[in-house]
Structure formats: C-alpha cells, structure tokens
C-alpha cells in the first residue's frame, strides 16, 4: 500500500508544534482550544468533503488525480449538517449562524454549496434551520426545523421554512422564506413531487408533512400561498402522521399513507381560476381508501387510465389491489406477512417474457418467506397469482437490485450465513456467509459492487454484482465507514479511519489490491494555525 509518508510527517510535525504551544503558553491563543470534530464526510463527485464546525470550514479532498489535492474553504458559522447534492457533484452545508456574544457579531444562518474543485456559493437563510430536504433532480432544497432537535436560539418559529433554487444565485426572491400554516403541529419532514402537470403547467410541489395535515407549496410559483389539507376532523385528536407519499404524475394525484390510520388519503389536484395574483390555480380534493390494518407500503402500477395501487398491510396479513379509477378493492391473502413492495420487470420460472411483477417481503424480523405476485389478472385470480418462497431465516434487512434481477436480504447472524441472494427471475435464494450486517453496506457509484465495512476490524469486504463473487482487502487500520466516489476513469471507494487529523484509504474498485490502494493522513490539520482566513 502506497502511504503518503511525506504528508503524514509534515502534518505530524504541525500537531507536535501545536502540542508544544499548548503546553508552553499559559495565555494561549483561543484557536488552540478549537475542537477537531467533523461532521460525517460526504462525497461530492470525485472528492470527499469534511466539515469542521469549530473552524466553520470545509476540507475538500480531491481524488481525481493520483496525488489527492486538499483545499480548505469557508462555510457559514456553526455548520450542523452536510449532505451530497442530488444528481450534482456538490456538497450542501447548512449552517445556523452566530448568535453573537461579547466581541463577536451575530451572523445569519446560511446554505453553502461546495464543489469538488473547492468553489463555493452561498445563500443567506436568516433563521437557524437544522434540517434539509432536496427534490429528485437536486434543483430545489427546503430548509426547516426538525422538531427533534434544538434550534439553539431563545425564540424561533418552528413552522418557518426557506426554499432555495440551487440553479440560481442568491438574490431577491431566492431563497423564499415563509411560515407555513399550522394547526398546532410542526413539520416532520418534506417530500418533493416529480415534475407533474397541474393546471396545464409542469410543476414541482413541496409537500410538508405534519401531524394530521399536509401543506402543499408550488415551487414554480413561490409567491403563491400554501395549501393546507387536514387529514382528520378538528375534534379528532389522533396523531395521523403522514409517512409515505406516492405521486401519480399523469393524473395530478398523490396518495398518502399515515401512521395510526388504516386508510390511504387521496389528494387530486383540480384546476381552478385563481382569485388573485397570490392565489393558486389548483385545489386538492380529499378522499379516503380502506387499506387493511396498518398499511406499511404502497406502489402504483398500470397505465394512466387504469392506475392501480398495490398495498401491503401486515396487520391484516394481506395485500390489496385498489383500482383508483373504478374505486374497487381486491383483497389478496398472503401466506407470509409483508411490509414492503418491490415492483420489477422480469421473467418468471413459467414465462420468459419480461413483465411487471411484484415481490412482497418484510424487514421487521418476523417473516422468513417472501411472496411473488403476478399482477396480470390479479383481481380475478387473487391468491392463485401468489407464489410463496421460504428462505428459512427471518429477514431484517434488504438491498433491492431490480435492474440486476436480484435482492440481497440480511438475516440475524447464524451458522448458516447472515445474507441471502434472491434471484427474482428463477425465484431461488442462495446463502452468502458474512460476518457483518447489511446496514454497513454501500453500493459503488455505478452499482457494480457492494462494499461492506465491519464495525471493527481492518478488512473491507465487497461483492462484485456482475457475478456475485465476494472478496476482501486488508487495510492498515480499523474502518469506520466506506464512501463510494464518482468521476475519473476507475471505480473507487474511500475507507474512513478514526483519526482526529483525518485518515482515509482510497481503494481501486477495478483492481482491489493493497498495491493499488493509497492512504492519506493529516489533511484536517492543513492551515490549522493560519489566521482565520480559509485556505
């Protein structure tokens, strides 16, 4: 393994100098007291981005060249969250700003986009939000208050949100900061619609989920008022918390599944004439569909004029097919309880024709069998279209790979192996022996391999998804996580090691050997003793 010893020695010298300074100076510089803690790093294309809250900076490790380049860039004060931007080679850093104290001026909250090359863009948000949600193509992001965390301020409005168009620079009207209507609750999450035609125009909607109601925001017309839809009557005190939203883009309709409800909620967006410039040109109608006991997952299938819902309800141990046009429901009894629906196109043991089919399974550790469902003529054939496959061990995790015709299941550790590989076409399951669970597994960027890092230990495991051949590589330190990176001419993953000064090992995914791997350590110490300017 090629270790960058020159870099390591240089950074080690900086660390030793810092330690001497701390020991020798009774009245030491406040910078020496700063924490080296980082937020969990994320990938931004072919780079890793580490955020150090105490320094209000991001360290960008560019892996596009044989010798990684390390850059430091400033982010907003008090960064609390970093996440990769969807479909873009950027990282988004959410900062709460500075409250202000003796000798320290207040600073507003902000959102900073950091590229793999170390370029930045920033939007001022104002309020100290602590949660972010992005839409499917990474254009829009909504900052809001997660009600499970403190805002770090004396007073704050938990229903305030900020909508940022990341394709536009900061300017008047971007971001849009507003307070969404409340019936006593606060946002629990945000879901974005795909582009859907509403009132004759392509729209992207933000759906803010709160206890017992949802709020719709038209991102194409941010000046228009929000629409709030209650899911219960005012006198109903149940916590009907929306947990899943499925969009029918052809019919301007959304389906909501909620905790503590046996019904699905149907919101159809009807065209209306707006009453003013700030009024919407659509309004939702609300209907309810019976979905069994404790519905846990749903999926849409069928053409635009014959749309159907497939719903699994573990409480009633069945699946339901709901014809959304005829408003009829077909109950399909299951031999095995299911809490997840996977639609896939593929053959079956009785037909080589690739058709839309469904796999129903549970990841709650209560079922050791899965159900295959033929969707053609399901209403008339019902359980005749269901085939049950016994796996022999209960399932507690799943990694679907429908594009490859397989699903990988995780089981409680046992002598017979803790993983199973389910062939969707052949409907067979083969065990894979593993010492680790699937929650530590990561697909690489092009889904050619699955990488598994144990919670302790120096070996990184992988499975080639083209032939499902397993392998492993020994590294030089225990692995805390593994992050795939994109870009360049080869597949690469980065193994993270526990070191305050920053330590990673870059593994070549096409030639997984120690000789082709390289380590980098000490990069988080770069510029630590420099003046406040980011490098």
State the helicity in percent bands. Answer: under 10%
Q: Estimate the strand proportion.
A: 35-45%
- Mean pLDDT score: 88
Summing up helix and strand content along with how strands pair, one would put the structural category as: mainly beta
Order of strands, widest sheet: 1-43-42-41-40
Give me the Rg, rounded.
Answer: 26 Å
The unreliable regions are 1-28, 531-535
Which term fits the overall shape?
globular
What profile does the largest beta sheet have?
A: 5 strands, mixed
Q: Count of DSSP helices?
A: 2
First-residue to last-residue Cα separation: 29 Å
Number of domains: 4
Q: What's the total number of strands?
A: 43
List keywords for this structure.
535 residues, mainly beta, 5-stranded mixed β-sheet, 4-stranded antiparallel β-sheet, 2 helices, 43 strands, 4% helix, 45% strand, disordered N terminus, disordered C terminus
Quick take:
The protein is mostly beta strands and 535 residues long.
Description:
The protein has 535 residues and is mostly beta strands. The chain folds into four domains: 124 residues, no CATH class; 129 residues, no CATH class; 109 residues, no CATH class; 130 residues, no CATH class. It is built from two helices and 43 strands. The radius of gyration is 26 Å and the shape is globular. The two termini are 29 Å apart.
């Amino acid at each position: 393994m090629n270790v960058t010893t020159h870099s390591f020695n240089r950074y080690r010298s900086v660390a030793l100098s810092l330690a001497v300074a701390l020991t020798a100076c009774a009245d030491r510089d406040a910078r020496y007291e700063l924490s080296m803690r980082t937020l969990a790093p994320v990938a931004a294309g072919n780079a890793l981005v580490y955020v150090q809250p105490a320094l209000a900076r991001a360290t960008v490790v560019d892996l596009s060249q044989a010798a990684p380049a390390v850059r430091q860039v400033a982010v907003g004060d008090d960064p609390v969250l970093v996440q990769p931007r969807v479909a873009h080679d950027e990282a988004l850093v959410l900062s709460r700003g500075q409250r202000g104290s003796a000798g320290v001026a207040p600073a507003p909250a902000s959102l900073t986009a950091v590229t793999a090359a170390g370029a930045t863009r920033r939007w001022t948000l104002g309020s100290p939000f602590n949660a972010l949600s992005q839409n499917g193509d990474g254009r829009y992001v909504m900052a809001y208050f997660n009600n499970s965390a403190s805002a770090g301020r004396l007073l704050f409005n938990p229903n305030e949100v900020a909508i940022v168009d990341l394709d536009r620079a900061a300017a008047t009207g971007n971001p849009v900061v507003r307070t969404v209507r409340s019936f006593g609750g606060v946002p629990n999450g945000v879901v974005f619609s795909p582009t859907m035609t509403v009132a004759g125009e392509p729209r992207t909607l933000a759906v803010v989920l709160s206890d017992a109601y949802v709020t719709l925001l038209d991102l194409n017309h941010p000046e228009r008022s929000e629409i709030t839809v209650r899911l219960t009557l005012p006198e109903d005190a149940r916590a009907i918390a929306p947990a899943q939203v499925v969009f029918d883009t052809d019919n301007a309709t959304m389906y909501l599944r909620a905790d503590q409800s046996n019904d699905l909620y149907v919101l159809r967006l009807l065209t209306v004439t707006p009453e003013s410039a700030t009024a919407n040109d659509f309004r939702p109608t609300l209907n309810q569909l019976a979905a069994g006991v404790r519905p846990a997952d749903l999926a849409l299938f069928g053409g635009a004029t014959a749309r159907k819902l497939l719903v699994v309800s573990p409480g009633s141990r069945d699946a339901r097919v709901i014809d959304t046009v005829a408003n009829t429901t077909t109950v399909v009894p299951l031999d095995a309880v299911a809490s997840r629906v996977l639609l896939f196109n593929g053959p079956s043991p009785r037909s080589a024709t690739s058709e839309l089919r469904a796999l129903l399974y549970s990841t709650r550790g209560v079922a050791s069998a899965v159900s295959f469902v033929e969707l053609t003529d399901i209403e008339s054939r019902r359980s005749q279209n269901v085939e049950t496959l016994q796996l022999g061990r209960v399932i507690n995790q799943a990694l679907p790979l429908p594009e490859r015709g397989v699903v990988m299941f995780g089981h409680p550790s046992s002598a017979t192996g803790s993983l199973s590989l389910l062939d969707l076409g052949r409907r067979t399951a083969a065990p894979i022996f593993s010492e680790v669970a699937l929650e530590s597994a990561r697909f690489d960027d092009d889904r050619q391999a699955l990488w598994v890092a144990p919670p302790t230990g120096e070996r990184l495991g992988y499975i080639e998804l083209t032939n499902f051949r397993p392998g492993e590589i020994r590294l030089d330190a225990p692995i805390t996580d593994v992050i795939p990176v994109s870009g360049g001419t080869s597949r690469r993953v980065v193994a993270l090691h526990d070191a305050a000064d920053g330590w990673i090992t870059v593994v070549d995914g096409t030639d997984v050997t120690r000789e082709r791997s390289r380590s980098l350590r000490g990069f988080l110490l770069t510029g630590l003793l420099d003046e406040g300017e980011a490098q």
